[in-house]
Specification:
With about 375 residues, this protein is of the alpha/beta class. It has helices at about 20-35, 50-55, 60-70, 90-95, 95-105, 125-130, 170-185, 200-220, 230-240, 250-260, 305-320, 325-340, 355-379, and strands at about 10-15, 40-45, 75-80, 110-115, 135-140, 150-155, 160-165, 190-195, 225-230, 245-250, 275, 285-290. Helix content is about 40%, strand content about 15%. The strands form two sheets. It has a ten-stranded mixed sheet with strand order 2-1-3-12-11-4-5-10-8-9, with helices on both faces. A two-stranded antiparallel ribbon has the order 6-7. The structure holds 3-isopropylmalic acid and magnesium ion.
């Protein structure tokens, strides 16, 4: 939406490990939306990680920085893996995912957890626990212990080493992410659960007080509850359907979202959106990425599940392009492909045929044609 044009600029950055493989499939999907539905976007591919490091000495070369700087949305794959050893820590850090979250101030990380009915049989939790699970974790992404100072590793007089980090949150940091979560709750079932460790940590005492005050001032129509993080972890596997929107700090959100992945059936299925502040034109920078990491053990084999990345593209259609019908269409196509038996190895029932990453992309594309065709017949 730059320069008065309505065309959304998307930087497609596959990155490392399975990142490029899964992102290639969501790239095909986005091309489908451009060709078949006239979605106004331009896609610019850029490299990240070991490969550009070997030729430029930087994991994030100038071309990639430029593509991401000018983009309204970044479709991100994954970072990390065995190649980590080949890139010195300092070069890694200079262009890390954390530095990007910080640079673009992507403070509101939305991680939807929806149990797919087609997958309940291959999921690690019992079918009756997964029934009706549909919630969103809103994780604060630019502060907390991930970024707090002081931090470091020091050597003590007796020769021991001591590592230390700082957990911290300010009023504004808490309120802006809590506001995002309250607003999201209003578009859903109007229930927000704030997660902290206020029985032990001062940071959490401030967190709980600020969330409570904001609730009273602006969001009293939303039902607000609080949980300690240890209890929240238990509740997520005990009865996940009790949640609508959950808001929490950076490290608690990191841990709880992996835990919640089990309440969705598979980590490979989970999408995410990381949103920056709204500017004076009403735009906000966003980065979309699957929650799974670079999975170096299966990288390059063409067997990774691309649905986390594809569902992240659906979030992009909804949140950056403001095309909820297209987002719904893509989510329905994914559900249709799954109902039709499409499975990558990570979500396959014993004995089921295992699709490659590319074949899963094919399955979603043909489901898109089918679902869009049915829609046209109805219209
Ligand atoms: C995540 C990941 C990252 C995090 C890593 C890759 C730094 O685990 O997005 O959940 O800890 O935030
Ligand atoms: Mg994580």
């Amino acid at each position: 939406m730059n320069n008065r044009s309505n065309t959304v600029k998307v930087a497609v950055v596959g990155g490392e490990g399975i990142g490029p493989e899964v992102t290639a499939q969501s790239h095909r999907i986005l091309n489908w939306f451009i060709a078949k539905r006239g979605a106004p976007m331009t896609l610019r591919e850029a490299q990240y990680g070991l490969i550009p490091y070997l030729s430029t000495g930087r994991v994030l070369p100038d071309d990639t920085v430029e593509a991401m700087d000018e983009a309204d949305a970044i479709l991100w794959g994954a970072t990390g893996g065995p190649e980590t050893k080949e890139v010195p820590a300092s070069a890694r850090k200079a262009g890390s995912l954390l530095s990007l979250r910080s640079k673009y101030d992507l403070y509101a990380n939305l991680r939807p957890i929806v149990a797919s009915q087609a997958l309940v049989d291959s999921a690690p939790l019992k079918a009756e626990i997964l029934e009706g699970v549909d919630f969103v974790i809103v994780r604060e992404l630019t502060s907390g212990i991930y970024f707090g100072e002081p931090r470091g590793i020091e050597t003590l007089p007796d020769g021991q080493r001591r590592g230390f980090n700082t957990e911290q949150y300010t009023t504004n940091q808490i309120r802006r992410v809590a506001r995002a979560a309250f607003e999201l709750a209003r578009t859903r079932r109007s229930r927000l659960c704030s997660v902290d460790k206020a029985n032990v940590l001062e940071t959490s005492v401030v967190w709980r007080e600020e969330v409570t005050a904001l609730h009273k001032e602006e969001f009293s129509d939303v039902e607000l509850t609080h949980l300690y993080v240890d209890n929240a972890a238990m509740q997520i596997v005990r009865e996940p359907r009790q949640f609508d929107v959950m808001v929490t700090g950076n490290i608690f959100g990191d841990i709880l979202s992996d835990c919640a992945a089990m309440a969705s059936g598979s980590l490979g299925m989970l999408p995410s959106a990381s949103l920056g502040p709204v500017d004076r034109f009403g735009r906000r920078k966003a980065l979309y990425e699957p929650v799974h990491g670079s999975a170096p053990d299966i990288a390059g084999k063409g067997i990774a599940n691309p649905l986390g990345s594809i569902l992240s593209a659906a979030m992009m259609l909804r949140l950056t392009l403001n095309r909820p019908e297209d987002a719904d269409l893509l989510e329905r196509a994914v559900a249709t492909a799954l109902e039709g038996g499409a499975r990558t190895a990570d979500i396959a029932e014993p004995g089921a045929k295992k699709l490659s990453t590319l074949e899963m992309g094919d399955a979603v594309l043909s489901a898109l044609d089918k679902v869009a065709g049915k829609e046209r017949e109805r219209a």
